[in-house]
Design brief:
Blueprint lengths: L1 E3 L3 E6 L6 E4 L4 E6 L2 E6 L2 E3 L2 E2 L4 E4 L4 E3 L2 E2 L4 E4 L4 E3 L2 E3 L3 E4 L2 E3 L2 E9 L4 E3 L2 E9 L4 E3 L2 E2 L3 E5 L4 E3 L2 E2 L4 E4 L4 E7 L4 E5 L5 E5 L4 E5 L2 E3 L2 E2 L4 E4 L4 E3 L2 E2 L4 E4 L4 E3 L2 E2 L4 E4 L4 E7 L4 E5 L5 E5 L5 E5 L2 E3 L2 E2 L4 E4 L4 E3 L2 E2 L4 E4 L2 E3 L2 E3 L3 E4 L4 E3 L2 E9 L2 E3 L2 E10 L2 E3 L2 E10 L3 E3 L2 E9 L4 E3 L2 E2 L3 E4 L4 E3 L2 E2 L4 E4 L4 E7 L4 E5 L4 E5 L5 E5 L2 E3 L2 E2 L4 E4 L4 E3 L2 E3 L3 E4 L4 E3 L2 E3 L2 E4 L2 E3 L2 E2 L4 E4 ...
Parallel strand pairs: 1-3, 2-4, 3-8, 6-9, 7-10, 8-11, 9-12, 10-13, 11-14, 12-15, 13-16, 14-16, 15-17, 16-18, 17-19, 18-20, 18-21, 19-22, 20-23, 21-24, 22-25, 23-25, 24-26, 25-27, 26-31, 29-32, 30-33, 31-34, 32-35, 33-36, 34-37, 35-38, 36-38, 37-39, 38-40, 39-44, 42-45, 43-46, 44-47, 45-48, ...
Antiparallel strand pairs: 4-5, 5-6, 27-28, 28-29, 40-41, 41-42, 67-68, 68-69, 86-87, 87-88, 97-98, 108-109, 112-116, 114-115, 115-116, 117-118, 118-119
Length: 1056
């Protein structure tokens, strides 16, 4: 620190933060600071830097130029002293009792004291205080800065920019003010205040206790003090007008974001309240407010009554004792405190109203707002939002979507709950509530008395809550816990129910109703209907529960449960069901580690479970006893939604899968029977495949069985709806195998996917049973897809070598070859062919084939380019007979008809040679004489004469479509020839008669029978007539005849 007063200091180096204390009274100082060179000499200070406690006095008749005052720096301009171009930064202070010109305030403070004058000040930020006797002229007040004019201070020509403030205390003077839009004027109408200037609307004044045309915005505020007035005031966003007791305002416009506060005993007439304008007032006697609200309705507060007041955006109304408010609207952030009486208030979203003790509210409409009641509220309508009854009381409240909370010795009487919620908290009471929809929740320490629980409503009694005298309809939802303090009531059927001391009796649960039987508590004779649920917790006990469309979840113990249609009992881990009876349509589900014993499973009942660890089940059904224990399921009956999952490494025996039942085997099963409507799968559950899954002696009697992986050994499929499908293996590690005796009877179906291993299968298809080979694109190509079985026996059975039922053109080039070691019986084979492309399904019998079989062929219909035959059946021998089953014994292949013929070498070909096969043992000589020698030669040679022609010409027959084309072509010449015959006859007549002009006519009726060697033939009946006119003319060479004719004919054709 350097302190120089009247002395000399030269070559001073003033570092940042250094303190210089000095004055201009005979002091000489020179040096440099962070702003450059500075000096004090001959009472003149130039470029002095003051900070961190530094101070400069400009003594009388001294001066200072370009002084910089930083944080904690101060400068005093004493009487008759001058300062020019001073800069006051943040934290700096300048006191002026002399003359200051061109000051720049950047966050600091300038105090204009008595006799001080400041001219041309620019307040960028910070404050200029004009004290009593001080004066400021031509001040610019920028955003974030302010000019304060105290009593007897004077400001001339102040320009207030947006964000800046001019504050004039009582008795202050401000003339020539230019108030720009967004700037703030803070003033009052007190004695001696004298302000005039221009704002964005007009010239304004505050003088002689009256304010005119003042604009208040952006923290601007005008206080109209007692016995003064304000007219034509505009209150914009951020502005505020305060009307004190015995003060008056007239023609006030209250815009969005503005505030009009009329204190007790104040008067405001002709108020024009716009949306978002805030009115703060009370109903105190002597207060008078009149005007129109933001909805365009007239409102008033007078004679201790308020009507049609709108409160929003920090607006508030206090209704004092002995007064009342009618039809108030409280919008967002509006507030109303009622100590007297309120009628018809509307509380919109985020609006609040408090009804204090001894106060009343009637017919309030709560639409998203909040009403707190310490007094009395009657007939409130809660559409949304909340009513809190806190120590007060309500009567006949209507809840239609909102919430009523009753607490702290509050009481709600005769509440009507249509939708929404009534919640009763500690020490709250609700009496006579009617629950038509929505919910009543009784929390710990709360009490509901005589509630009426109608259809669609919910009454929820929680731990240590109480509800007594309940009247419950059949579809009223009761939600309760056995830890409730007390619950009593009467069901729709007249049965009394209760929950006391941890015991629930005769509880009715429906339509969302829930009873939670907690640990170490119990329930007895619970009735669970559709939509209801009983939860039996660990160490809890439920006895005699009846499920009719509802659900019981057992984590503890359930005794003697009856499950009717639609009911479900679920036994969770470590839960136990004892002596459950499952009736038709009911379901018992036992999960892992669950236990169900002494079960009675009646016809149509569903049991859902698995062979997982820990599951123990025992009981009886129509087929005897059943059980699951130690991962073994025995004699299970699965129907009507019943399901058994046999896990890998576990086993099921003698299961019956009925209509609506299902069984998934990932482990082992034997002697399973799948009846009509039942479903069985082997080797798969969801997306899990098991290669080691195995089933033996599967009996599909009208049901459906699908093998995804594993091995099926010995199976029978019967009934028109019975089907067994072996799917194409998913990959090489999850094969599908079929082995043993497989019988398909009574119109049942076996479908085999490509890649299934059937080499050890002995197939029997009888009584219209069918086998389908179902190849997919995995084996598409130039070679056929291969299927192999050990043996094949047909007894009126069918084998479809392609699963495609559409035309061969849709087979995507997939053809199948079925190979069997043995074939016997009688039946039908269905093949697809593309003879033109030398592709087709094929039957191969490695050994002998016996029996009679028909081959049905469906070809693409494209004409082959050659006469080559296609082999459809290959056998290793035997006396089997194969014939074409198509209509007429032939199949159309474009131009010619094809038939099935044996090649004499145990093969059967599709050929266009329709010539019958020769006698298999021809005898060229009908009465051959033996060689006279008794011993024939070992190798006799037959007579060469009977040898057949080495290259016989095949006998072909065209198809009907080809014949039709040929016949149509042949009919046209016949028609033309019949018409020309009538012309020929006319010419003959003309040669034999005179040459006269003639009109002539002729008719004809012919019948033609046509046959061809190719097989085309038709019969034609032709009728018609010809008319004409001719004229003979003599010429040197003879007679020339000119004429014309026309004809009509009708031809009827019958094809052979």
């Amino acid at each position: 620190m350097l302190d120089v007063s009247g002395g000399t200091a030269t070559n001073v180096t003033q570092h940042d933060g250094a303190i210089l204390k000095t004055n201009t009274n005979g002091t000489t100082v020179s040096g440099t600071n962070s702003e450059g060179a500075f000096s004090i000499h001959n009472h003149v200070a130039d470029n002095v830097l003051l900070e961190n406690g530094g101070h400069l006095d400009i003594n009388a008749y001294g001066s200072a130029n370009k002084t910089i005052i930083k944080d904690k720096g101060t400068m005093s301009v004493l009487t008759n002293a001058k300062a020019d171009a001073t800069r006051i930064d943040n934290g700096g202070v300048m006191d002026v009792a002399g003359n200051a010109t061109n000051t720049i305030i950047n966050g600091g403070t300038q105090n204009i004291n008595n006799y001080g004058i400041a001219t041309g000040t620019n307040i960028n930020s910070g404050t200029q205080n004009i004290k009593s006797g001080g004066k400021a002229d031509t001040t610019i007040i920028s955003s974030g800065s302010r000019q304060v004019v105290e009593k007897d201070g004077t400001a001339i020509g102040s320009n207030i920019s947006a964000g800046g403030s001019l504050i004039v205390y009582t008795g202050g003077i401000a003339h020539g003010v230019n108030q720009e839009t967004g700037s703030a004027l803070v003033a009052n109408t007190g004695a001696g205040t004298d302000i005039e200037g221009y704002n964005k609307l007009s010239h304004f004044t505050i003088t002689g206790g009256e304010a005119n045309y003042v604009v208040l915005e952006n923290t601007g505020e005008l206080t109209v003090v007692a016995k003064t007035s304000a007219k034509n005031t505009t209150i914009d966003a951020g502005g505020k007008l305060i009307v004190q007791k015995e003060a008056k305002t007239d023609s006030t416009r209250l815009n969005n974001g503005g505030v009009l506060e009329v204190q007790d005993g104040g008067e405001a007439k002709h108020v024009e309240q716009q949306s978002g304008g805030a009115l703060i007032a009370s109903t105190t006697s002597g207060t008078l407010i009149e005007g129109t609200n933001s909805y365009g309705d007239a409102f008033y507060i007078r004679n201790s009554e308020a009507k049609n007041v709108v409160l929003e955006n920090a607006g508030s109304l206090t209704v004092v004792t002995g007064s009342r408010a009618v039809d108030t609207i409280i919008n967002a952030n509006g507030k109303m405190d009622v100590y007297g009486k309120d009628v018809g208030t509307v509380l919109n979203s985020a609006g609040t109203q408090t009804i204090y003790a001894s106060a009343t509210s009637d017919k309030a409409n709560i639409k998203g707002g909040k009403q707190t009641v310490y007094g009395l509220a009657t007939e409130a309508n809660i559409e949304s939002g909340e009513q809190i009854v806190d120590g007060g009381s309500t009567e006949k409240t209507h809840i239609n979507g909102g919430t009523q909370t009753v607490q702290n010795y509050g009481k709600a009487i005769n509440t009507d709950i249509v939708s929404g919620l009534q919640q009763i908290m500690a020490n709250g009471t609700a009496e006579g509530s009617i629950i038509n929809g929505g919910s009543q929740i009784v929390n710990e320490g709360g009490l509901a008395e005589n509630s009426v629980l109608n259809d669609g409503g919910t009454l929820d009694v929680r731990e240590k809550g109480s509800a007594t005298g309940i009247q419950q309809s059949s579809q009223g939802a009761l939600v309760a816990t056995t830890r409730a303090t007390r619950v009593t009531g009467t069901r729709a059927d007249g049965v009394a129910f209760s929950i006391e001391q941890g015991a629930a009796n005769n509880i009715l649960l429906a339509n969302g109703g829930v009873l939670t039987v907690e640990s170490d508590t119990s329930s007895d004779k619970t009735q669970v209907n559709t939509g209801g649920r009983e939860i039996v917790k660990t160490k809890a006990t439920a006895t005699g529960t009846t499920l009719t469309g509802g659900e019981q979840i057992v984590e503890g113990v359930a005794n003697e449960t009856t499950i009717n249609d639609g009911g479900i009992q679920t036994v969770s881990a470590n839960g136990e069901a004892i002596k459950t009876t499952i009736n038709e349509g009911g379901t018992l589900t036992v999960n892992d580690n669950g236990k169900a014993t002494d079960i009675v499973q009646n016809s149509g009942a569903a049991l859902q479970t698995s062979t997982a660890n820990g599951i123990e089940i025992s009981g009886t059904h129509q087929y005897g006893t059943f059980s699951i224990s130690g991962n073994l399921a025995t004699n299970m009956l699965l129907e009507n939604g019943g399901n058994l999952l046999v896990l890998a490494g576990t086993e099921a025996r003698d299961s019956t899968v009925g209509k609506g039942g299902a069984m998934q085997n990932q482990g082992q099963d034997s002697a399973t029977k799948v009846n009509s409507g039942g479903q069985y799968t082997l080797g798969r559950s969801k997306d899990e495949f098991q290669a080691l899954a195995r089933a033996e002696d599967l009996q599909v009697a009208g049901g459906t069985a699908i093998v995804y992986a594993g091995t099926l050994a010995d199976a029978s499929v019967s009934g028109a709806t019975g089907s067994l499908s072996l799917m194409t293996p998913r990959d090489n590690v999850t094969p599908v195998k079929l082995e043993g005796a497989i019988r398909i009877t009574d119109s049942a179906t076996l479908t085999i996917g490509n890649g299934v291993d059937t080499t050890l299968a002995d197939l029997t298809a009888a009584s219209r049973g069918s086998v389908w080979l179902n190849s997919n694109n995995s084996c598409a190509g130039t070679s056929n897809c291969e299927y192999r079985v050990n043996s094949l026996l047909l007894n009126d059975g069918n084998v479809y070598l392609s699963a495609q039922t559409a035309a061969p053109a849709t087979t995507n080039g997939i053809y199948n070859t079925l190979t069997t070691n043995e074939l016997s019986g009688s039946g039908n084979f269905y093949l697809h062919t593309n003879v033109a492309g030398s592709r087709g399904d094929q039957l191969v019998v490695n050994n002998n084939a016996t029996g009679n079989f028909k081959i049905f062929v469906q070809d693409t219909g494209v004409s082959p380019q050659s006469d080559d035959a296609m082999t459809l059946v290959k056998t290793g021998g035997g006396d089997a007979s194969f014939s074409l089953g198509n209509t007429g014994g032939f199949v159309d292949l474009g131009t010619y008809e094809y038939v099935l013929k044996s090649d004499g070498n145990s093969n059967w070909n599709l050929t266009n040679d329709v010539k019958p096969n020769p006698d298999p043992n021809p005898n060229p000589n009908p009465n051959p004489k033996p060689d006279p020698k008794p011993d024939p030669k070992p190798d006799p040679k037959p007579d060469p004469t009977p040898e057949p022609t080495p290259t016989p010409v095949p006998e072909k027959r065209i198809t009907p479509s080809t014949a039709a084309v040929l016949n149509m072509a042949a009919t046209l010449p016949l028609v033309f020839d019949a018409e020309l015959n009538s012309i020929r006859e006319r010419l003959n007549i003309m040669k034999a008669s005179p040459h006269n002009n003639n009109v002539w006519g002729a008719t004809y009726n012919t019948r033609n029978n046509v046959t061809t060697d190719a097989g085309a033939g038709f019969e034609q009946t032709l009728t018609g007539m010809t008319v004409g006119i001719d004229s003979p003319n003599d010429i040197p060479e003879g007679i020339a005849t000119l004429g014309a004719f026309m004809g009509y004919s009708h031809s009827h054709i019958g094809f052979d």
